[in-house]
Amino acid sequence: MIDFENALSIVRGIGSTLAAAPALSIENVPLADALGRVLARPILSPIDSPPFDKSAMDGFAVCAGDDSPDYRILSVVAAGGVPDCVVRRGECARIMTGAMLPPGTERVIRKEFAEERGGIMRPLRPETSDNVIRRGASIRGGALVLGPRVLRPQDIGILAASGIAAVHAAVPPLVGILSTGSEIRTAGEPLGPGQIYNSNGPQLAAQLAAMRCPSRFFGPVADQPDALRASIASALDACSVLLMTGGVSEGDFDYVPASLETLGAEVLFHGVSIKPGKPTLFARVGERFIFGLPGNPVSTFVIFEVFVKELLFRLMGIDWSPVSFAGELGERLARRSTDRTEFLPVRIEGGKVFPVSYHGSADLNALADSQGLVRVDKGVAAIEKGEKVDVRPV
What we know:
Layout: E1 2-3, H1 4-19, E2 26-30, E3 43-44, E4 54-55, E5 59-62, E6 71-77, E7 91-95, E8 107-110, E9 114-117, E10 120-123, E11 132-133, E12 144-146, H2 153-161, E13 166-170, E14 175-179, E15 184-185, E16 196-197, H3 200-210, E17 215-217, H4 225-238, E18 241-245, H5 256-262, E19 266-270, E20 272-275, E21 281-285, E22 288-293, H6 297-315, E23 325-329, E24 333-334, E25 341-349, E26 352-355, E27 372-376, E28 382-383, E29 388-393
Parallel strand pairs: 1-20, 6-7, 14-17, 14-18, 15-16, 18-22, 20-25, 23-26
Antiparallel strand pairs: 2-13, 3-12, 4-11, 5-7, 5-8, 6-10, 9-10, 19-21, 21-22, 23-29, 24-28, 25-26, 25-27, 27-29
Helix pairs in contact: 1-6, 3-6, 4-5
């Protein structure tokens, strides 16, 4: 069994090495389909944004330094319109928010700071700013818009504002999912004595879908060595990464480690000082990777978040790390065992962090009330109410 940090370093190191290889697959993706995809190449702006000086207010555009008591209104400039006059001292143009400034003007007097009568505008009080957004104020043509990243809704807006209709995105790896266990049945089937429904498979598929990674089910497969080896071999022929659940511990029917050995897999680690998820296995066969995840569903969920995501994003070309935030603990958090790094589900209420009612790694329903995971380091028995904790949103 290795420490959590050592295991994470192995996953990150493998992923980063492969991401640096020139074989990273890239495809052109329309902007409308790019949310959640990994931007593979930096994007430079093809234009100044905004592409012209524009009014930040509804009001009247006037010349720089013109403090005339009255201004003759020459025309009206709407957003999207082209000014049809040159403004001189003692003159102005009525202008709308977002409209292009007419030639000769440098500032805008807000509508509410002026009165208009008989084609004449008269300022009522002095302005505090020029109320103009200058050409290129957001970004200059040729400047970096976005670097490689997971594209968020705001990123889509930023790209659209620069006139970018499509992006080069990393092609996500196809991930196989293989649930093991003779007791496993698919939702919708009747349950016999001693049987349970397969929650790990659909849960992993959903976690992958949230990353925009395609997945394919291989299983469930019964606890039979020949059938398991055949399923693993089939999955590795089709997929870049294989996620297996169950069968990785040391029980009489835990055949995953032996099956991988028979298939020539190199085991990079088996057993991590983490809770939940101690039996986790990470292996490779050439350039294909296998995670053996514990069968308990909270373990599967947590290990995907802390290990699998790290590998998958690196395979798509980015050194991804989770975003976390510091929150104040709303009640004391205590635990009996301190021999492993532990990730505990928490809820956020009134700006404070509270542990959820949680009865171990089989208690999947505990995740329904959680918005994040709190990491409790090895050797820490308790965190007191009011202390700051790092929360990893989930």
